[in-house]
Amino acid sequence: ATYTSGTQYYTAAGASAHTWDKAANTTLYAGWKANTYPVSFNANNGSGGQSANVTATYGSAMPSISTTAPTRTGYTFMGWSTTEDGPVEYFDKEWVINLTTEDGEVINLYAVWSAKTFYVNYYWRTPLGYDYTPLMCTYDEDCFAEENDWFERENYAFTGWKCKNCAAPFDGLIKPGDNIKNITDGSSVMLEAQWE
User: Strand 107-115 to strand 36-42: parallel, antiparallel, or no bridges (unpaired)?
Assistant: First the structure.
């Protein structure tokens, strides 16, 4: 700038910053303020973990968040995504920086979940004790009780399966073909053959 009197220089917003008071050629240096942006956390059908928004600054690591991961029955927390049904983009406790270049842009992070798989162990009594066959189910997906194709008991008729520690509606007799979807929270379970 070479103006010597009667002028102003201004902020990026157009506000007066200072009256020009230089009588000679002068070099002006740009001043920069890093953009900031809010980051929100959505447990995405889960609960717990980080809930309050944080304000991040461009060029700096995102502020610390809760070290307690969110939880969801039947699922394992995998990390965070910028879309509700998207893949993991940021892993738990990962060092994160520069989620956006735009000042004030709201960044929403959604928890990413993986459904647990678990074994349904079909037990039956034999003359030598117990034997079993494990079959795998996935939480929130249909899973049907098996027929007893493994063992016969002389002078007895197979009637179904019984879970000793299951809550309703799986605390009664479970017949082959019954849908046992979400019979547990993702932990393995034992079904014992019943006879009459």
Answer: parallel
Contacts of 108 (CB under 8 A, 6+ apart): 39, 40, 42, 82
Of 76, 3, 89, 87, nearest to 39 by C-alpha is: 89
Q: Report d(CA 148, CA 122) in Å as an integer.
A: 9
CB contact at 8 A, 192 and 146: no
Match 């929100």 to its residue by tokens: 40
Q: Which of 90, 82, 93, 77 is nearest to 45 (CA)?
A: 77
* Mean pLDDT value across residues 66-83: 94
Cα–Cα distance measured from residue 37 to residue 63, given in angstroms and rounded to the nearest whole number: 11
What's the start-to-end Cα distance of the chain, in Å? Answer: 100
In tens, the pLDDT along 117-156 reads 999 999 887 766 678 889 999 999 999 999 887 778 888 8
Residue 164: which residues within 8 A CB-CB, separation 6 or more?
190, 192
Q: Helix count (H) and strand count (E) of the chain?
A: 0, 11
Burial of 174 (0-12, 13-18, 19+ CB in 10 A): buried
